[in-house]
Amino acid sequence: MEAQDTDFARAGDSLLVALGAIGRSLGVKITVPSFKTISPSVETLEAIAQASGIRTRRVLLTTDWWRQSQSPLLGFLLPDNQPVALLPSGRTYEILNPLSRQRTLLTAQTAQNLTPIAYMFYPTLPEEIITLRGLWQFALKGCNRELAQAIVVGVMAVLLGMLTPQAFGLIIDYAIPNTNRGLLAQISLGLFAASFGLAMFQLAQNIAILRLRTHVLSKTQAAIWDRLLKLPVSELRPYPIGALYDRISVVGQMGERLSNLTIQLVFGGVLSLLYLGLLLIYSPTLTVIAIATIASASSVVLGAVYFLQPLMAEQQRFKANSLAFALQLTRGIGQLRIAAAEERAFGFWERQYNQQLKLILAQQILQDRSRLFQQIIPTLGLIALLGWGIPLVQSSLPLGSRPLSTGTFLAFYVAFGALMGGVVSLGNNILDGLGAVALWQQVKPLFSLRPEIYSSQSDPGKLRGYLKFDQVSFRYDSGRALVLNRVTLEAQPGEFVAIVGTPGSGKSTLVRLLLGFEVPESGAIYYDGQDLSRLNPATVRSQLGVVLQHGRIYQGTILENIAGRTLASMDEVWAAASMAGLVDEINRMPMGLHTVVSEGGINLSGGLQQQLLIARALVSQPQIIIFDEATNSLDYRTQQIVARSLEQLKITRIVIAHHASVIRNADRIYLLDGGHVVQQGHFTELMQEQELFRKMFKNMFKDQVSDSAGETEP
Fold this sequence. Notes:
Elements: H1 7-11, H2 13-26, H3 44-52, E1 54-60, E2 73-77, E3 82-89, E4 92-97, E5 102-105, H4 108-111, E6 117-123, H5 132-140, H6 144-161, H7 163-175, H8 181-229, H9 241-282, H10 284-331, H11 333-338, H12 342-395, E7 398-399, E8 402-403, H13 406-447, E9 467-474, E10 484-491, E11 496-501, H14 507-514, E12 522-527, E13 530-531, H15 537-541, E14 544-547, E15 556-557, H16 558-563, H17 570-579, H18 583-588, E16 596-597, H19 606-619, E17 624-628, H20 636-648, E18 652-656, H21 660-663, E19 668-673, E20 676-681, H22 683-689, H23 691-700, H24 702-710
Parallel strand pairs: 11-18, 11-19, 14-17, 17-18
Antiparallel strand pairs: 1-6, 2-3, 2-6, 3-4, 4-5, 7-8, 9-10, 9-12, 12-13, 15-16, 19-20
Helix pairs in contact: 5-8, 6-8, 6-9, 7-8, 7-13, 8-9, 9-10, 9-13, 10-12, 10-13, 12-13, 17-19, 22-23
């Protein structure tokens, strides 16, 4: 790994040792990339995390943070920012010093030696297609301690709860018939102590369940969002933006419901079996009634699940369509008013929404009926138990190996009631958690896609700037015409290459292919002689400075919009702003670089937005920059500043533009028409030899020519 002037790089092997310990704690193999990207926008830590398939985020260590261990952390010792691994140990942390390889318990005194900034790590989902079962297994992986603790405490709570029916049987069989007040007092004190202990165990169980739920929820949510962010852009194209938003927005709900359903199934099932074992001890014969009652209640739940699942899936589908249509209405409200089509649009949405309400009502009716039967069935079971058990008690017939006494029967009755209460609660929880399955059906198509980043891809190394399209053909859909047809073009390191063409000739498609957003139908794209299809696209993009045609401004300050997540200094930010012709505008703003910009930059002009995007692309000092119509909203003076800045950069520049001032001094211009490269050369050569280029110049650059004639260059 090449050194860089950051704390991480100076740490050297200490960082790798600390990350290795964190990886073992997470059950993840830490992989060191074959290169260290020399770019202020990518830290060493992030490069290693990306190569290892884990996510990392920066966290602030607040007061007494070490008293509640959650996930392994990478911390830094003062004063030289020496990296250390902070590993969970019970309810606190242990600190592993990579130099001494010793572990010590973290205390308030040692915590003061750490910087307030640390990094938390999250494991990611495997590369394979994800199933609900696989997601379930992933959620519970690494939760053995919390799960075992919750189960043990739950079992102890149930065992204490079992003392109540046994004490009730002793009172009926011995204390009351013999008027044994001493025994009654002892049983009463025992029940009081058991009740107190039961309350404590239930409190401990709830805390353990809360820790387990928090662990599962944070782990699954982070992994699910990581997977969504890694999906190929081309695979998301068939989804309307509203439907896609609905699918993504249910991720949080699905994770929460999945964790709740997991916990309820584990605890409800295990603890119900314990009560069933107690019933078998009391009377194997009467236990048949309990088993029959449980089977009846379970059949009701299974029947409800069978009929509810398609209704929920259909309701989610209508909800997604309704949301997608509502979003389209919001975006096209002006066109609707012009066409006087408001009533028709509202009518279409109303029909969708009414169908959704009908499905919700049908689900509610089914759930209410199921809950009603779940209340009736235990009552019928108790009636059957009384009808069968009382005559047996009266006749004192032997059941199994011993007679059934009145106390034993009443103890069985109390235990049976507790068991059925747990079964009914479990059934209701299953019905409530069934929404997780419906939500899974909603997002399942997204998880059936393989991520665009996978382990078999290789690191490109530090890019020098050589690009080549080799006989590339591409179409967006199989039934449509080719957008690009056997296109070949190249750019040498440090070369300024411009691409122009008629509307629809495939210029922006070239950019999408360069960024790995689309995959060629035939041919190949090369970075420094390496096939892009075999490279990790994220590491390639991290070395590019890109301005897309419809780039967006973030909500935040001017400084945050330019610097982003880079390590750029204030001088580097000002240098990027200068190259984008933005310095004078920033100086005129009331708070300079700290002026707040709204989401999408709606409080800025189109030209200022493009200048911000250009500065953002240049601040990381990339070896390759790609501009897609990045200057079409700029005035002539600003275009000249940007053009001069591009000419002074000794890096590879790929520029799609329709302003003569921007492309006039390009080393090579490619002219696209109908998906073909029809000509290449310098600006003056194309003006003399290419009729189409001359025609385009007269039509597309007409305003630019008039501007250049009316303005003097500063």
